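Batch manifest, entry 17 of 40.
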Amino acid sequence: MQFTKLGLLAGLALGALVAATPAMAQTVVKVWSIDGIDRPGIADTFSKEFNEQNTDIQIEYRAIPFDDLVNETLRAFATGNAPDIVSFDNPDFALFSSRGAMLDITDRVKASEIIGKAQYFEGPLNSVSWDGKLFGVPKYTDTIGVFYNKDMFAKAGITEPPQTWAQFAEYAEKLTDTANKVYGATFSAKAGEEGTFQFLPIIQASGGGYKEVNTAGAAEVLDLWKKMVDNGWASKDVLTMGQWDSTGTFNSGNAAMAVSGPWEIDRMVEDAKFDWGVTLLPTITEGGERSSALGGFDWGIMSTTQHPDEAFKVLEYYVSQDNRLFPEFGNLPARGDIELPVTGVEKKDAALKVFQEQLQYAQPRGPHPEWQKISKAIYDAMQAAMTGQMSAKDALDQAQATIKGIVG
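Output type: structure tokens
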């Protein structure tokens, strides 16, 4: 799940129009996404290329920061100013499809020669489905694992990557080098979706899920995360950093391990001046159950569109470019019919194999129409425990009570 660097956006306008509409255009299709704010992305790139190839349909593209996208779209829908197409983080999609805000495209997909349900992995496809109908298509998928600095591991006499979270904490202590400003580990425990994205797999691996978050295993690992921060094995900044900035400390050589995803591979190949590798997320007990986060975004047409046929043609164009997602943007297609190319870059190809394996254990966030409230209960518990306001058990018990009130 890739997120933009919101800290750099304080002085920027909420969105930017990157494609002007020529006077000759017969139909304008408005598209909103988070792509293109701090670097070229999928939606802005494909929209520009679509416009260069068409005169009868033109895309008016707007980039919106991740933290603003859902609320901005809700306001636009309520006031009759919604875009034609929007790209949501996959757990947010149910909020809109369950409220009738997304167009049912079930029959259009059946008739399409470009989009087919059978192409997609089950998890991503479930995120765009509601009440047996299809309200969108997956844009891409991703998950998380552990990047580790092989040079630092060798120097510390560590011969294999961490297998359990207890070992992860043990390694973090050994790898911390205060004199050289090196932390043993970094991750994102931010009070936001990125924090939930990194912690929910631990809940799932301990036998829980979004309806049952107060497991003994989740409390145990949350205590370990707090211990790492309290002892300086991880920076206190993990409480405020998103995944992009957190992994940046690893790339610069200031952290020995980082919990992050495949969107980092290209940046790491370019920036990291050391030997590195990727391993699966640790388990709670040795040989225990595995889980990982199911990330990625979805495409959908809003039910208020005045141009459903043209919007679906745009959607088909986006999907027709899916084979470019990994080579050009480092994102994994949510489809099983696209074979990822061997790049010839040893570290990159090895990392990709690990993330493909990790996807076998990835579980969705929800889907549930009130996902944002559920997610907030989870990351609020993380923050309360890691800042010492509550014990991990009490914080997760409180989250459980809140979630029970939401889901029943």
